[in-house]
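Our preliminary data section would be incomplete without showing what the modeling component actually yields. Below, a chain of 272 amino acids is followed by its predicted structure, encoded as tokens that our downstream tools consume directly.
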Amino acid sequence: MTALTFTLQKTLRFAINCSALTPNHLADKSLAEIASIMLPYGKNQLRVDEIFSISGENRQVIHFKNSSAALNYLGANMSSGEIHIAGDAGAYLGFGLKQGRIHCHGSSLAFAACNMQNGLIQIDGNTGDFLGGASAGLRKGMCGGLVLVKGNAGDRVGDQMRRGLILIEGEAGDYCASRMIAGTIGVLGQVGSYAGFNMRRGTLLLAKPAELHATMQNCGTHTLPFLSLMFKSFAGLDSKFASVSTQRVQRFVGDAACMGQGEILLMSANNA
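Predicted structure:
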């Protein structure tokens, strides 16, 4: 069976909520029923077939073609199947993802992987602020799963992150790992100011030196054998992280301002 495919047919003036277009929501629906689903659009609603042309049969594999940043909540609360996005995605990509895989071949806006619980999200381009963060009104961000970003990420990556793994091949903005509760974030490019701000626990793995605030305490250079196990788990990924291998790091602990026990590990200390 060919994948169920939604091809964007019009230029959208406002963002549209696409949370209803997931494998678990569409599993038992006919094409006619899918076409008649109403999607929130500004103050109004539009039928799916007013926005997309629809083809294909396999409800567990969904493709979005000609996608744009106006498509919000792609893969929201998804619990099975796969979504492939040929183009850009809007805000809240993979919001609350419970299981399954999302592959965005372009870039996405803010709050990607927000409140994610499990599964895999890969973004080949860049992503916006609050990657893996907590949505408004919630005190916990990403709680599990893997997020792989090939490009750059915005500010507040992993804000209030509780569990899981975020790997960023490019750069990350200011306040990376802010208010982090647990989990692991890896960044191969440069990070902005105030990395680890109000960090409680968890690990921020950096390939390049960062400008840290005074309450992140330098604990010196260490050999940490457990890193071999972590990097071995990256070996099967389609990522630059698959070739990372070191046990020697410079370790920073904090944030001391909130009695935090998080750690920032600088991998470039391997050559120190």
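The chain is about 5% helix and 30% strand. The CA atoms of residues 204 and 264 lie 5 Å apart. Preliminary results of this kind motivate Aim 1 of the renewal.
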